[in-house]
Amino acid sequence: MLFSPNYYINMTDVNYEDALREAIELLYFAYREFTAGPDRILAQRGLNRSHHRILYFVGRHDGISVMALLELLAVSKQALNAPLRQLVGMELVSNAPAAGDRRRKELCLTAEGRKLEQRLTGTQMKQLEKIFENVGPQATNQWRRVMRGMYE
What we know:
Elements: H1 16-43, H2 49-60, E1 64-65, H3 66-73, H4 77-89, E2 93-97, E3 105-109, H5 111-151
Antiparallel strand pairs: 1-3, 2-3
Helix pairs in contact: 1-5, 2-4, 2-5
């Protein structure tokens, strides 16, 4: 296996491209497993992964504006509109005018939305907790560095 704990990818290595391709595959398969549990729960309600992202980030940023959520998720208004409207219609997210500026909409999870978000994210937290316990703090910190490097 190219990614043993002591393996360092050397850019001049003949197997460098293979190592990068394996990294892509590992990321793909890990994400598939990471989202499988929540996807099954969402499907029971006719929802999908985009709904989970909205629930998760609205839950993490109670009172977030629609514009701030658009920026955070890096999606268009069109991409956010339909799933957010569904979540509001299902009474999982509330969409109320801000106290100081009635033109600005603030998003919050309802009690039912919070329960669903905790159930969805709870499955992922259990996965990560088990893995982090198995690999230890040094590997966990290195993983965080890699994940941050992917988006910074």
